[in-house]
Amino acid sequence: xxxxxxxxxxxxxxxxxxxxxxxxxxxxxxxxxxxxxxxxxxxxxxxxxxxxxxxxxxxxxxxxxxxxxxxxxxxxxxxxxxxxxxxxxxxxxxxxxxxxxxxxxxxxxxxxxxxxxxxxxxxxxxxxxxxxxxxxxxxxxxxxxxxxxxxxxxxxxxxxxxxxxxxxxxxxxxxxxxxxxxxxxxxxxxxxxxxxxxxxxxxxxxxxxxxxxxxxxxxxxxxxxxxxxxxxxxxxxxxxxxxxxxx
Length: 247
Prior knowledge:
By secondary structure, the chain is an all-alpha fold. Helices cover 74% and strands 2% of the residues. The protein has two domains: 1-90; 92-247, no CATH class. The N and C termini lie far apart (63 Å). The chain crosses the membrane at residues 12-31, 51-75, 142-161, 173-191, 198-218. Keywords: Membrane, Transmembrane, Transmembrane helix.
């Protein structure tokens, strides 16, 4: 069991390095978007918290922090030493699969889901896939989690590839159904695990708090403002809740 854990931490070491490099690349590209002094909605000189760069910067910085924490954990538990010694340098099948599935999940999330699918749904699916798929290192769970994100991303690309169609809700419903199915399967196969019980709460609460803070506290652009869930949140905020404290 200790040897299996050591091998898993060695794979985490390589995966975390790859994710750190990927995060830094996307952060670098995102910094091409002006943080202040740009033009938004015809208004020049907008404040930093209204910049279109804030959302992707937040996502990729969070991805960077998670990758660094994974790297630190792998080093502390001996994964780095195991990965760098002569026996651990080989590129084996399980290591390649772990790396490839993580890359597929993040690429489809960033490229396909975030621009087209409701942020709460796409981020909830991502969080569920990462926790369920990778916290035990089970091969079947990894493949299922990756398939869930990839299928949702492909559906979004095929149904609403042009930017003019990003506010359509067909891909939202598909991603929501896939997310619900993944959660249901997780609760069935991992019903004895505490992580399985708290994952749905984290997957719902984290993106909800983040997007509401971005939209209503910092007053900045959010991904896919016409998404299935956020559209209703925004409507009830301005039509139902805001008049209450204004009156």
